[in-house]
Write a structure and sequence with these properties.
The complex is a heterodimer of chains A (404) and B (361). By secondary structure, chain A is mainly alpha-helical. Chain A has helices at 3-27, 35-60, 68-86, 88-112, 117-140, 164-174, 181-191, 197-215, 217-227, 229-234, 239-264, 276-286, 291-309, 316-337, 341-360, 367-383, and strands spanning 160-161, 195-196. Classes of the chains: A mainly alpha (404), B mainly alpha (361).
Chain lengths: 404, 361
């Protein structure tokens, strides 16, 4: 990593901490940067991030993957079915296999038969929903603890770690309410507090993907299938084989994300994914089809989700509004400096409206936090489309021997 | 009518039904069910007057949803947002109709207009994002669906639009009998065919007429076939995108009304929210043709309604969801194969004709 990029990343991290700290101080809400919040946000970020990473794999090879949701659903089911019989690790494995099966299905329809990818993805979603509901009734109804729409409890959980030596003193420091210092302490403590093994695996998968797709010959070929499959083909790359591998692995990752959801809830339930496959898709776009940005987006969306769900005294959503406004101000300042004045002023105004709302009301409905990821994605798409660069042949069917 | 083409377009759906019945039979055998009993009981129940009425009613909903999707498909626009457009349309329509105390005709007309305007406005956001900011409508409509669901839960749970309804869930105020379109009991004495069934036939005809007999329809189909060719011939592609998306949204706004005005009388939190995805599937089955869509909607509704009978055979009714998914996958794959086959035949034919005239390729 070059030095300029390192400095930029540090800068972004610093600004983020400062904004969090200001918001915490203003709203008198230590929850915003507590170890528990950060730890939970990481947990929520895992399935979203895995779905986003799944999207990267598929779309980098030129296959738009609307079927992520269905593949996650298959993953939750696999985890429930194998998990209640043979434990969490078996559940994880079954979820991966089921998800990969969903990916394979999308590959067969869209690569071999050339069906429009969005249509094929929609069909995968339909089929996954129907199949899992059907199998749930068939396989779980008559088992003790199971029901028509849910599996019996999954045996055991995946290991998670707490490194007391690091987290305890930091949690104590967080409680002291010192500007910036306490917030850094809270965030760092969160990293060593109930850290699930799957969070570690997910981070490793992100690093692995970044390396494999951008630093190896295999990755170059895979991405060439998504940028210009005709050129790749003319150079002897077996485009369809790469697409198959990418989409199947995409399904595997989505299945892993689904399996995590079921194992974390210690049970499979119909509708458990609740649209996370689609949030994953949004995260991938937010992250500009790259692992780093996608991971950051997943953590952000996971953080928003956490604050909404642990909001015991209706303070968190209000904090989020101030937080969002400050973020908008920072982006607006950067935009006005780089002479994208109109958009910058737009963001400034939007931030102003949010500050106004923050002053006027003492609490906000949770729905505000619920829609935040979707509105963020729309805002990013609407204002940064010239900075976003999806793979050039994303969604374009490729037939060997046919031009374009 | 070109009979050869007509025959070919029938192959795919028939193949879809045959293969899905075959696969379903295998599943049924695997779970030790009597295949013959299952299908015959579905058909026996599905052809009873009461079930047929229920099928027509459900098919009305599916038909509208598929039309909304199809009009976008005709122009290569993917309106995945029918879900969001119809739930918002239905809530607004339900709230307005619940507040009205007018005679039936003006009340129903206002309700329909409200639903269409709200549906179109919600689709309009996606249209604007696409035209002005270059945002793919696939992604924006997915996001807008989730936003719509959140808006609805907010409006119904936390504002005065929501009331405790007689069903013990919160919903919009119940619509007075004068605002309802309960329809006619033509087939079965106890169950009425929704009033919207008849309106949707009219909408289907209007869809066909606009697409095939007007300048706008011609422009729309031309843009769908080749955007660059259409632009060269002077069609304003951006305007077409906006108008098509608004029309699609307006039809989508109606999707909830057959059920709302025919039966529910209130948009409550149990109102189905996924009819939009069904519409995508049926638009694909029907190849965006109104008659094809009607047949697809009836087939889908038949499977949904007749599956209720399966519980008596001790079989999960979701088996029909699997059938529906299989039908869609097989049908889109066979359409694609047929299209390619036609393309190759066409190329061979042209090559032969050229050869006969002594022109070398």
């Amino acid at each position: 990593m070059n030095i300029m990029r390192q400095q930029r990343l540090l800068g972004i991290f610093g600004v983020a901490i400062a904004i969090l700290s200001i918001t915490r101080t203003f709203t008198h809400n230590p929850d915003l940067t507590s170890a528990v919040t950060v730890s939970q946000a990481l947990g929520f970020a895992v399935p979203i991030g895995l779905a986003g990473l799944a999207g990267i794999w598929s779309e980098r090879a030129g296959v738009v993957n609307i079927g992520l949701e269905g593949m996650m659903i298959l993953g939750t089911f696999g985890a429930g079915w194998a998990g209640y019989q043979w434990g969490a690790w078996a559940g994880l494995l079954a979820g991966i296999v089921m998800g990969a099966f969903g990916g394979l299905l999308l590959a067969i329809a869209s690569v071999t038969f050339g069906v429009d990818q969005i249509i094929a993805g929609t069909a995968v979603n339909l089929l996954a929903t129907g199949l899992t509901k059907f199998l749930a009734i068939l396989l779980f109804t008559d088992v003790v603890g199971g029901g028509q729409a849910q599996s019996p409890p999954i045996k055991g959980t995946l290991p998670s770690f707490t490194i007391e030596a690091i987290s305890s003193p930091l949690i104590a420091l967080h409680a002291k309410d010192i500007f910036i210092v306490s917030d850094v302490a809270g965030v760092v403590a969160g990293l060593f507090f109930h850290l699930s093994i799957l969070t570690v695996i997910t981070v490793a998968l992100f690093v692995f993907t970044a390396w494999l797709l951008w630093k190896t010959r295999f990755g170059l070929r895979l991405r060439s299938a998504g940028e210009n499959p005709w050129a790749a083909d003319s150079l002897g790359v077996n485009v369809n084989r790469y697409k198959y591998m990418a989409v199947t692995f995409s399904g595997l990752l989505a299945g892993l994300g689904g399996a995590y959801l079921a194992i974390a809830a210690t049970i499979y339930r119909n509708g458990q994914t609740a649209g996370r496959g689609f949030i994953g898709l949004a995260t991938m776009i937010f992250g500009n089809w790259r692992p780093g940005g996608t991971g950051a987006g997943a953590i952000m969306f996971g953080y928003i989700d956490t604050l909404r769900l642990i909001d015991s005294d209706n303070k968190n959503v209000r904090g989020l509004i101030l937080l969002g406004a400050l973020v908008l101000f920072v982006i607006a300042a950067a935009m006005i400096r780089t002479s994208r004045r109109a958009t910058g002023i737009g963001f400034l105004l939007l931030g102003g409206v949010m500050i106004g709302g923050f002053m006027a009301a003492s609490n906000f409905p949770p729905e505000v936090a619920q829609v935040a990821p979707y509105i963020t994605t729309l805002l990013v798409l609407a204002t940064a489309s010239q900075n976003l660069r999806p793979p050039a042949a994303d969604g374009v069917p490729f037939r060997k021997g046919e031009g374009h | 009518m070109n009979f050869r083409r007509f025959g070919i377009s029938l192959i795919a759906p028939l193949l879809g039904v045959v293969i899905s019945v075959a696969v379903t039979s295998v599943i049924l055998v695997a779970i030790n069910a009597n295949v013959g009993d299952v299908f015959s009981s579905m058909i026996r129940y599905g052809t009873s007057p009461r079930a047929m009425t229920l099928i027509l009613n459900l098919a009305t909903t599916y038909f509208l949803s598929a039309l909304a999707v199809a009009i976008g498909f005709k122009m290569n626009l993917f309106n995945i947002g029918v879900n969001g457009q119809y739930v918002l349309g239905a809530v607004a329509a339900g709230a307005v109709a619940g507040a009205l105390t007018l005679p039936k005709i003006p009340s129903v007309i206002i309700t329909i207009l409200v639903a269409m305007v709200v549906g179109a406005a919600w689709a309009g956001i996606a249209a604007w994002l696409k035209v002005a900011r270059g945002v793919s409508e696939v992604i924006s409509t997915i996001m807008l669906n989730f936003i719509a669901i959140a808006i609805i839960s907010y409006v119904i749970v936390r504002t005065s639009v929501g009331h405790e309804t007689s069903l013990n869930v919160r919903g919009t105020k119940e619509i007075a009998e004068s605002g309802m379109l309960r329809g006619l009991a033509l087939l079965d004495e106890g169950t009425k065919i929704y009033g919207f069934f008849f309106i949707s036939i009219f909408i289907g005809i209007a869809y066909w007429f606009i697409l095939n007999r007007t300048r706008f329809g011609y422009d729309l189909r031309a843009t769908g076939h080749s955007a660059s060719a259409a632009r060269t011939s002077g069609i304003d592609a951006r305007r077409m995108t906006v108008v098509t998306m608004l029309l699609s949204g307006a039809i989508a706004g109606l999707v909830g009304l057959p059920y709302l005005l025919g039966e529910a009388a209130s948009y409550n939190l149990n109102f189905p929210t996924d009819w939009g995805f069904t519409g995508i599937a049926i638009a694909l089955l029907g190849r965006n043709n109104p008659v094809g869509i009607a047949v697809g909607a009836l087939l889908w509704a038949f499977l949904d309604v007749a599956s209720g009978q399966l519980i008596l055979e001790g079989i999960p009714r979701e088996i029909t969801t699997i059938m529906q998914g299989l039908i869609v996958i097989v049908v889109v794959i066979s359409y694609e194969i047929v299209r390619r086959r036609q393309l190759t035949t066409e190329q061979t034919r042209v090559a032969k004709a050229l050869e006969a005239q002594g022109v070398s390729a």
